[in-house]
Design brief:
Blueprint (H helix, E strand, L loop, with lengths): L8 E2 L7 E2 L21 H11 L8 H15 L1 E2 L11 H7 L1 E2 L1 H19 L6 E10 L2 E11 L5 E4 L12 H8 L1
Parallel strand pairs: 3-4
Antiparallel strand pairs: 1-2, 5-6, 6-7
Helix pairs in contact: 1-3, 1-4, 2-4, 3-4
């Protein structure tokens, strides 16, 4: 999670969004998309050898459920110490360790790669940076949402939902404020 500081920084690319999170030189929001890479060899290897070693399903819900279950069972949340360090998706795919954005970026990359292989539109898969209320107080956090077209978005959060559940967005908002 993003550590708070006494100094106000901006995270919007136009400087319009005041925050109390880490310096932009450490958390490079303008280039955050570069930490998601469905074409990474490590991502593709993890997808084909560990998550779907036999056949990958064609149903988007099955793909998401399988990838999310794998992340919850095998990835380990490890908090950054001192400052927020965004790991490459390659490193996280190999170690299966990272904080919220590292794990979310890996899960995002895995889903994008799987969807691409199956010809599934991934435009309703989104990453979000927000504050959440936890037992440790209000913290910066990154999670994913997916809208399957039924009108209710689901939340994929490999670091907070460690029981493997996939809550609806409204339930997630109510739980974490």
């Amino acid at each position: 999670s993003l550590a708070k500081s006494d100094v106000t920084y901006t995270s919007g690319t136009d400087g319009s969004i005041p925050t109390d999170v880490m310096q932009r030189s450490v958390v490079d929001y303008a280039n955050a998309h570069e930490y998601i890479n469905p074409d990474s060899e490590a991502v593709l290897d993890l997808l084909s050898t560990q998550i779907f070693p036999n056949d990958m399903p064609t149903d988007p819900a099955q793909i998401i459920e399988t990838i999310h279950a794998y992340m919850n069972q095998n990835a380990t949340y490890v908090s950054d110490v001192g400052y927020d360090d965004w790991a490459s998706v390659d490193d996280v795919a190999v170690t299966l360790e990272g904080d919220c954005e590292d794990l979310a970026n890996l899960e995002y990359s895995l889903i994008l790669a799987a969807f691409s292989q199956q010809g599934i539109d991934a435009s309703s898969l989104q990453a979000h940076a927000a504050y959440v209320d936890t037992t440790f107080g209000r913290q910066g956090h990154v999670f994913l949402t997916y809208d399957d077209g039924t009108g209710a978005s689901i939340v994929l959060d490999p670091s907070l939902n460690n029981d493997g559940s996939i809550p609806l967005y409204d339930d997630y908002v109510n739980q974490y404020n």
